[in-house]
Specification:
7 helices; 9 strands; elongated; two-stranded antiparallel sheet
Length: about 240
């Protein structure tokens, strides 16, 4: 776990936290149960005071302090979210994968996404503050690593359109309530128009695939010549 970093206006909070750490270390090294109980009680009091101080400090931040918080060294990065969604396994439960995505998608965690005036599914590089003439407006929505990783997650591991050496693999992992969707994917010069049918209401699994009206085995689309258009029908089940 990364060491907690305190900002320049958090010195009093840091003092509380250091005292708590010292008391916890003392409790771990004492063999007297009565002393340990007394220390635990003092730790609880200090933690409550620290929480109250934290609320007070953050209730009255200056614009500069807000910018420091936004760029906090301990803030979660895109890869932290990626690790929660896809680590050393491929999620096969569409409901669960989409639930994790909802927890990080601005469109689902904000009351009014329209105020940002950017794509609702990616975090922007910055958002105009209260003193700006365009308060709430977001900037540079595709300039962050989050945008690229979000697109990667959705397109390849939820919608399931995955480029491979042998061709495009179609392997959706979607919520059971999604009855279907269409994707246009350009791959090695060809354009694939893919329609996915989930009338069965499943979360994962491909039952049948047709390419230009002809059934194929498996779910890897054969490579098409550059400049051609390919019609793909995928049935989940």
């Amino acid at each position: 776990m990364a060491k907690r970093v305190f900002l320049e206006f958090e010195h009093d909070i840091e003092a509380f936290e250091k005292k708590v750490d010292e008391l916890r270390e003392l409790a771990e090294n004492t063999s007297e149960s009565a002393v340990a109980v007394s220390i635990d009680a003092e730790v609880a009091q200090l933690e409550n005071k620290s929480r109250e101080l934290l609320k007070k400090v953050y209730a009255d931040l200056t614009p500069w302090q807000m910018s420091l918080v936004a760029r906090h060294p301990n803030r979660p990065y895109t890869l932290d979210y990626i690790d929660m969604m896809f680590t050393d396994f491929q999620e096969l439960h569409g409901d669960r994968a989409f639930a994790v995505y909802r927890k990080t998608c601005p469109a689902y965690i904000e009351d009014i996404s329209e105020i940002h005036r950017t794509e609702p599914y990616v975090y922007s590089q910055m958002v105009a503050g209260k003193d700006a003439p365009t308060f709430g407006e977001a900037k540079n929505s595709w300039l962050t690593g989050t945008a690229a990783w979000t697109f990667f997650n959705i397109s390849q591991y939820i919608l399931g359109i995955q480029p491979t050496l042998d061709g495009l693999r179609v392997d959706p992992c979607i919520p059971h309530t999604l009855t279907g969707y269409t994707v246009t994917r350009r791959f090695r010069g060809a354009e694939y128009r893919i329609t996915v049918d989930n009338a069965a209401g499943v979360q994962h699994g491909v039952k049948a695939v047709t390419v230009d009206g002809k059934a194929i085995c498996g779910n890897v689309l054969p490579l098409a010549a550059a400049g051609t258009e390919v019609t793909v029908q995928v049935t989940m089940g």
